[in-house]
């Protein structure tokens, strides 16, 4: 039996030596290893491009136009004036029906009704929504990582308890074998101790395999190479402010509300008139001097500068429905936020009460463990003296084992719920 005990210890069922793995390191690596984290760089680039495009609305706009047309009629002198001009020796041909124009136009927006500013705000709001959506998923990744990490800690504690129990059984088996030689211990008592030891070895095998699976999952989530002998640190109790909810999920509602507000501003800007300065220069016929063109029909250089107003009245057709749609979306978002806060409050209360319960249980756990250890030590003495049977001893060893296991689990559960609450609150 000693050989079996030593095999488990040497095989690395208990994490010994090697470098320690911390929860903070796992959380950081899980965030970095999550594929969606790379999306943040794309979101920043898209915001920069969208913002630059919106700002370009106030840059001078340059257009080069060319056209050639033929029309069924053109401006000409009335017949009466034409006969008079011929009598004066003037041949006024009128405008040609084929007309040509090559034009360069430069315009500068003076006021666009707030459209450019609304597009900039929309770019910012959209990027913020995207960032917070990614942040929300990363918080879920952190939550899953924390659960796996504490699962590993719980399994490690179970293995420690099982190994300690096996050591106790080994020591008492030696006592029983010595007693059997003296005739004070029956062979059936030795067999009971051996059976209990084999049962514990089975549990140790099952627990070690579960620990191996948890380690593999954590390795995949974090990208860390986690060996069999790595120690997982028990985290310290972190500071948590239960009155501050900085979670990405809650901030996402505010970002989406801002996005709706910006889109209403874009709807309002679409119905406003636009003013711009412009300058046109073109070569072609006819030009601005129409009488000269009617007489000579020549190509000429022309230029024009001015102020222009454009007002798309048709935007009013859909404005009311667009505003109503945005208002409905805002109210739906408020309802969703209220539902989220209601559910979050319930979940937060449950977690806080669970922490309180585990802390209260731990106060009794330490006393129970101490008493169970004292009872087991007394039973060992009685067993050596032949006062009690192996069944009585095994029962007391099992009770001590269970008490230690409950104490460790309650401690880890309290700590796990504290970190769960910390992640829920975005802290």
Reading the helices and strands in chain order gives HEHHEHEHHEHEHEHH
Number of strands: 6
On the 0 to 100 scale, the average pLDDT is 84
The proportion of strand residues reads 5-15%
- Poorly predicted runs: 1-18
Range of helix content = 55-70%
Summarize the SSE layout with pairings:
Elements: H1 2-10, E1 20-21, H2 23-33, H3 39-55, E2 61-70, H4 79-87, E3 98-111, H5 115-182, H6 187-222, E4 231-232, H7 248-270, E5 274-285, H8 290-296, E6 300-310, H9 316-384, H10 390-424
Helix pairs in contact: 1-5, 2-5, 3-5, 5-6, 5-7, 5-10, 7-9, 9-10
General description of the model:
The radius of gyration is 42 Å and the shape is rod-shaped. The two termini are 50 Å apart. The chain has helices at 2-10, 23-33, 39-55, 79-87, 115-182, 187-222, 248-270, 290-296, 316-384, 390-424; strands at residues 20-21, 61-70, 98-111, 231-232, 274-285, 300-310. It is α+β, with helices and mostly antiparallel strands. It contains ten helices and six strands; from the N terminus they run H-E-H-H-E-H-E-H-H-E-H-E-H-E-H-H. A four-stranded antiparallel β-sheet has the order 2-3-5-6, with no helix packed on it. A two-stranded parallel sheet has the order 1-4.
């Amino acid at each position: 039996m000693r050989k079996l005990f030593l095999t488990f210890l040497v095989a690395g069922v208990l994490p010994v030596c090697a470098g320690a793995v911390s929860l903070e390191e796992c959380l950081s690596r899980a965030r970095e290893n999550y594929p969606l984290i790379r999306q943040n760089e794309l979101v920043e680039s898209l915001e920069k491009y969208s913002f630059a495009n919106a700002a370009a609305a106030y840059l001078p706009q340059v257009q080069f136009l060319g056209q050639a047309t033929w029309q069924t009629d053109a401006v000409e002198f009335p017949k009466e004036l034409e006969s008079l001009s011929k009598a004066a020796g003037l041949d006024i041909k009128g405008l040609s029906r084929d007309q040509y124009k090559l034009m360069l136009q430069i315009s500068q927006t003076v006021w666009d009704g707030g459209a450019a500013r609304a597009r900039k705000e929309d770019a910012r709001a959209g990027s913020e929504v995207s960032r917070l959506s990614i942040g929300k998923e990363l918080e879920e990744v952190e939550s899953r990582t924390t659960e796996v990490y504490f699962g590993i800690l719980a399994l490690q504690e179970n293995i420690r308890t099982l190994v300690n129990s096996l050591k106790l059984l080994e020591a008492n088996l030696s006592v029983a074998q010595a007693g059997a030689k003296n005739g004070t211990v029956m062979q059936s008592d030795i067999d009971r101790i051996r059976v209990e030891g084999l049962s514990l070895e089975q549990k140790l095998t099952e627990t070690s395999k579960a620990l191996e699976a948890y380690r593999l999952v954590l390795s995949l989530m974090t990208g860390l190479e986690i060996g069999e002998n790595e120690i997982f640190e028990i985290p310290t109790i972190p500071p948590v402010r239960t009155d501050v909810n900085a979670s990405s999920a809650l901030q996402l509602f505010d970002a989406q509300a801002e996005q709706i507000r910006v889109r209403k501003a874009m709807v309002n800007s679409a119905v406003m008139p636009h003013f711009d300065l412009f300058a046109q220069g073109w070569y072609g016929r006819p030009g601005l001097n129409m009488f000269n063109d009617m007489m000579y029909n020549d190509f000429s250089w022309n230029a024009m500068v001015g102020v222009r107003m454009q007002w798309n009245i048709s935007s009013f057709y859909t404005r009311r429905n667009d505003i109503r749609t945005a208002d409905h979306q805002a109210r739906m978002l408020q309802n969703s936020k209220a539902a989220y806060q209601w559910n979050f409050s319930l979940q937060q209360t449950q977690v806080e009460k669970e922490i309180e319960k585990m802390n209260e249980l731990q106060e009794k756990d330490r006393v129970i463990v101490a008493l169970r250890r004292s009872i087991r030590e007394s039973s060992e003495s009685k067993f050596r003296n032949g006062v009690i049977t192996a069944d009585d001893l095994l029962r007391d060893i099992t009770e001590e084992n269970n008490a230690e296991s409950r104490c460790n689990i309650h401690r880890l559960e309290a700590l796990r719920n504290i970190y769960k609450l910390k992640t829920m609150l975005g802290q």
